[in-house]
Amino acid sequence: MDTFDCIRTRRSIRKFHHTKIPEEALYAVLDAANLAPCAGNLQTWQFLIVEDEAKKKVIAEAALEQDWIATAPTVILLLSNPNMTKAEFGDKVGDTYDNQNTMLAAENLILAAWNLGIGSTFVGSFTESRLRKEFKIPAAIKIHAIIPLGYPVEISRPLGRAGIEDCTHIEEWNKKIRKERRLISALVYPEKEEIRFGELAEETTKKVIEKVKKEVKKRIPKAKKKK
After folding, report:
1. What is the per-residue pLDDT across 36-68, written as a single tens digit (0 to 9) for each?
2. Contact indicator for 183, 196 with CB cutoff of 8 Å
3. What are the phi and psi torsion angles at 119 (to 5°)?
4. Residues 6+ positions from 68 with CB-CB distance below 8 Å
5. Which pLDDT tens digit goes with each residue over 94-114?
6. Which of 33, 45, 70, 96 could form a disulfide with 56 if both were Cys (CB 3.0 to 4.6 A apart)?
7. Burial per residue of 155-191, b for 16 or more beta-carbon CB atoms within 10 angstroms, e otherwise
8. Domain 3-219 - what CATH class?
C-alpha cells in the first residue's frame, strides 16, 4: 500500500474477524515498530503479545470494561523501560524521551499493521495495577497502552478533519498558511490527482478507502480446509 494511502485510510477498528493473525505478519508489524526513531538509539519499548482468550478478557475488563478488546485475535501491551533513558539523560529528560520513543514505535506498529490489512486501536485508559498483576509486569516497567489487532469486519467512513491551514504557522505564531495552498512533492495518489488538505482531500480519501477495503479482504488469510 502507498504510504500516504496507508496514513489517510487508517481508522480505529473495534470489530474484528476471528481469523488469527499469521505469526510472520505479526512479527513483521513488531519489527516495523522496533525500527522507530528513538533518543540515543535506546530502544526502550517492550511488547507483550496476548492471544489467550481468558487473558484478553482480563485486559478488556482492566480497560474500563471495553469488551470489544477481547474479540481481537491479538492484543499487544505496549510497555517500556524508562530506566534506560533516565540513566543516559537524567530522570526528567529521560522519562520524556522514553514516552516519545514509545509513541513513535506505536505509530510504526499501527501503520505497519494497516499496511497488511490488520486493523487496530490505541487504547490508553486502563487500570494499571490489574495488568501488572495478571501479566507479572515489574514496577520498573511502564505500561503505555493496549493495542488490539485483527482483520476488520468493517472500515468506518472518513471523519471530518481540520485542514493544515488550521494548525500550521509560518515563521511566527498565528501567521497561518493560505487555505488554497496546494500539496507538493509526493502527495499524489495513483489516480495522479493533485489534492489539497480539506474538502478535496476528503473526497480523495473516500475513493482510496474503497480500494483499501478490497485489499483488506484479499489479505485476510483463508481458513485451511479440514482434511
Report:
1. 999 999 999 999 999 999 999 999 999 999 999
2. yes
3. -85, 160
4. 14, 15, 60, 148
5. 999 999 999 999 999 999 999
6. 70
7. beebeeeebbeeeeeeeeeeeeeeeeeeeeeeeebee
8. alpha beta
Return the H-helix or E-strand segment holding 135: helix 128-135
φ and ψ of 12, to 5 deg: -75, 120
Residues 194 and 137: their CA atoms lie apart, in Å, by: 49
The letter for the amino acid at 96 is: T
Distances in Å between the alpha carbon of 171 and those of 151, 183, 193? 43, 19, 30
Cα–Cα distance for residue pair 130/40, rounded to 1 Å: 32
CA dihedral 137, 141, 142, 146 (to 10 degrees): -40
* Predicted structure pTM score: 0.82
Residue 152 CB coordination number (10 Å): 21
Taking only the tens place, the pLDDT of each residue in 153-172 is 887 766 677 778 888 888 99
Instruction: Please state the domain extents for the chain.
Output: 3-219
CB 3 within 8 A of CB 204: no
Closest CA to 120 of 106, 103, 102, 99: 106
Residue 64 — left, alpha, or beta (φ > 0 → left; ψ -120 to 50 → alpha)? left
CB 61 within 8 A of CB 50: no
